[in-house]
Specification:
four-stranded parallel β-sheet, 6 helices, alpha/beta, about 35% helix, two-stranded antiparallel ribbon, single chain, 8 strands
């Protein structure tokens, strides 16, 4: 495979924010429910100056964010709230990775990792959009718009584990 790149070096320059310099990666979201994880994250903040934490699976079934019972969908942000409340309480902010697909919305049964994260795109983008709107609205109501605007948001893990680029564009 050959890739070609072009660039306009005569155009104006723009700053490149180095968000990775102050962000710690954490693995799976459910780890944030553990006391030992919380001790280690606080230490990373206090001793290393980390300001953001990123993890995968905030939408995974084991987080309980969305559960399907027959044709009914039940939303619960209890576990996400517990993690985000802690992160904010120690002076850090979440780097929100909107992943993985809840099985109640998944178009297929392809999974990854030992916790069986669904990596297929949504079977119905309107239902997925409702979940994301409810989740973000909940965070705005709970933490305030000024706070949530300071968070980073990403779909990268979802994209790299099964949703192709054109599907990611369709989500937005």
């Amino acid at each position: 495979m050959v890739a070609s790149f072009t660039g306009d070096l005569s155009g104006p320059s723009a700053p490149l924010p180095h968000f990775w310099e102050h962000t710690v990666g954490s693995g799976h979201a459910t780890l944030g429910l553990r006391a030992d994880w919380r001790v280690q994250l606080k230490r990373a903040h206090d001793e290393l100056g980390m300001r953001h934490v990123r993890f995968h699976g905030i939408l995974s079934d084991d987080m309980g964010t969305l559960i399907g019972e027959g044709s009914e969908l039940f939303y619960s942000f209890f576990n996400a709230d517990s993690i985000f409340d802690f992160v904010l309480s120690i002076g850090m902010r979440p780097f929100v990775e909107l992943s993985f697909m809840p099985s109640a919305l998944a178009s297929g049964d392809q999974t990854a990792f030992h916790y069986r994260a669904h990596v297929s795109p949504p079977r119905d983008y309107a239902e997925w959009s409702v979940l994301i709107r409810k989740l973000v609205r909940h965070w705005v109501d709970r933490y305030g718009l000024d706070e949530v605007r300071q968070w980073f948001f990403d779909l990268e893990r979802t994209r790299s584990c099964g949703i192709r680029q054109r599907q990611t564009r369709r989500i937005f």
